[in-house]
Each structure stands twice: as C-alpha cells, then as structure tokens.
Amino acid sequence: MPIPCPFCTAQMPDDSVFCPECGNRVDSASPMAVTGAEKIIAALAYMFLPAIIFLFLEPYKRNRFVRFHCFQAIFLAVAGIVMGTILKIAAAILFLVPLLGPLIVVLAWIVLGLAWFILWIVLVLKALQGEIFRLPYIGDMAEKQANAI
C-alpha cells in the first residue's frame, strides 16, 4: 500500500527507505503523520499499566507509533525493576560501611531517582510531540516489537 513521503507528500511504497521523488531518507526516525489522540495514547503508555492495555485495544494495537511507545514503556519499566533490585543489593552491602556507606546510598538513590524522573518526562513529552525517541537498546527492542504486527 503506498504511503505519502513526510517531506514532499509524493506517493511511495511503504517499504521504501528513500523517497523516489525528493530523495530524503524515510525510515522510523523520520516524522510520521500522527493524530492528537495517538499522541495522547502514546504519552499515557508511559504510566506502564495503560501500555499493556493499549496493546490489546483494537484501534491502537495495529498503530506502529502507539505500539512503539507501549513497548518502550514496558521495557523501560522492566529495566527499572532490574536496576532497582541491583541497587537494593548494593545498598545492603554499602550499609555495612559505617558512616560513609549510608550517605553514598542516599545520594545514589536521589541522583538515580531524579535522572529516572527526568527521562520519564522527556519520553512523555516526545510522545506528545509525535516523535519516536529511541532509548539505547530498549528503543531498538521496542522498534522490533512495534514492527512485528
């Protein structure tokens, strides 16, 4: 099924990497035509539970933009759980060091928690802007899952 080029709106095959008319690269990093509802659904996916629900709802389970953000949110949540578990184990060990150990643990939790929150805000804003913002490794896995319809 032909799709329009996001740069010059010429019709082109959906599996094209370059537009035959203007020559621009057209891949998953290029802008997509995304509706306002799809942007909001993609942003809500970063609340984790809605991401799982949206993958089963009919209008959104076939939408590549929404699927990408849902899978990235799920993979990010899993990575957060793994990282949190590793930090708890490290904290238990560091608490054995008198005075300095608990201070390092508290500072690490504050810095990493703030970084995680900022990353979450960036991902929600990128989804609201209609962009596909791929995180390293997690974004690649989400892209593969989103394209496997």
Question: How is this fold's topology laid out?
Answer:
Blueprint: E1 3-4, E2 11-12, H1 36-44, H2 49-54, H3 58-61, H4 64-94, H5 100-128, H6 138-147
Antiparallel strand pairs: 1-2
Structural write-up:
The protein has 149 residues and is an all-alpha fold. The protein folds into two domains: 1-31; 32-147, no CATH class. It is built from six helices and two strands, in the order E-E-H-H-H-H-H-H. The protein has helices at residues 36-44, 49-54, 58-61, 64-94, 100-128, 138-147, and strands at residues 3-4, 11-12. Strands 1-2 form a two-stranded antiparallel sheet. Strand 1 (3-4) and strand 2 (11-12) form a beta hairpin. Helix 1 packs parallel to helix 4. The longest helix is centred in the middle third of the chain and has 31 residues, at 64-94. It is elongated. It starts with a strand and ends with a helix.
